[in-house]
Amino acid sequence: MRRLSAAMWIMLASSACRPSKVDGRPASVSIMAAESTRSAPFEYWHHLLVVPVRVNDSSDQKFILDTGAGDNVITPALCRRIGCTISGESIGKRMSGQEVRAPTSILGSLFVASRRASSVPASVFDLGLDPSIDGIVSLSFFKDVPFTIDYQARKILVEDERTLKARVARGSVSPIVIEAHELPSVTIKLALTLATGRTIAVEVDTGSDALILNDTFMGELGVAPDAPNVKTVKGRDETGYEYTRYVAVIPGPVRVAAAPEIQQRDLRVQFQRIIYDGLVGHSFLKQFTVTYDLPNRRMIFAKP
User: Fold this and answer.
1) Interval 75-93: pLDDT, tens
2) Which residues face 248 on adjacent strands?
């Protein structure tokens, strides 16, 4: 997996574009026309987005929409209910680097909003969450079709050619890098610019809440581990890995490199030793309407 330098990220960022109308009509008209037939509501479980999903054309199940998961996931309980067959093994890594293995199966079909796909790979893994949650739908499900998370309306919307043009017309566009580690796993990286001017590559992860940065950035951002306004959290995750996290508010802006108008100040940041520069999660993303357009390798941000 090749990492991009900051210079390469800045070159990518310069390719963003912002048209203003679609077919001579205001962009919002085209978007609203399709929402009722191509959308699904979501609800919150803590900061996680829970969407209705149909597996094998059955009744709705509750799945988490997690852009950082890589793979689609079903729980062992759901696997038993639908009679799935184990066909292989997936191997992934947590953000702190430890390896995670899980058996895999092929689902007959998966349906989210208006998108239905057949023969969908899924890992079988105990999520350790609310027992009413049956799995995770990841970016691998949407690798061929753009979709939008409208946080204000609490909807997931699958885009078509017209509505996607409308999103571009009224939004701010940023290129992304798609990483397919071990197929069909898919995650994406976005370029963010910190208050110091440094541009970093962060994984876009709706499964995380705070902005998470590698603890090597603490000194650069003026965060001292022993400062009274810094909270230290030590613990052990479900794999047995011992971690130390430092939580602080950084006053300076964090910007999308290709669209600096998409920014926030006074963000709560979790610093931890991880294998990435960082992960951008719910606390940042929820301030915008966010479109994931993997076919065109871009994200589109719009202010509510």
Assistant:
1) 999 999 999 999 998 887 7
2) 269
At the top level of CATH, the class of 25-161 is: mainly beta
Whole-model pTM over 0.85: yes
**Residue keyed to tokens 């978007």:** 31
* pLDDT confidence of residue 183: 59
Q: Which helix (H) or strand (E) is 235 found in, with range?
A: strand 231-236
Can you tell me the distance from the alpha carbon of 90 to that of 71, in angstroms, rounded to the nearest whole number?
9
Domain locations in the chain as residue ranges: 6-18+175-288, 25-161
Taking the C-alpha atoms of residue 91 and residue 123, their distance in angstroms, rounded to an integer, is 10
Q: Is 21 helix (H, G, I), strand (E, B) or coil?
A: strand
Of the chain, the end-to-end C-alpha distance in Å amounts to 35
**Average pLDDT taken over every residue of the chain:** 88
Collect all residues with Cβ–Cβ distance below 8 Å to 55 and sequence separation of at least 6.
Answer: 61, 74, 78, 82, 107, 108, 109, 110, 111, 134, 135
Q: How confident is the model at residue 161 (pLDDT cuts 50, 70, 90)?
A: very high
Q: Check: CB of residue 211 under 8 Å from CB of residue 280.
A: yes
The architecture CATH gives domain 6-18+175-288: Beta Barrel (2.40)
- Indicate if 25-161 has the same CATH topology as 6-18+175-288: yes
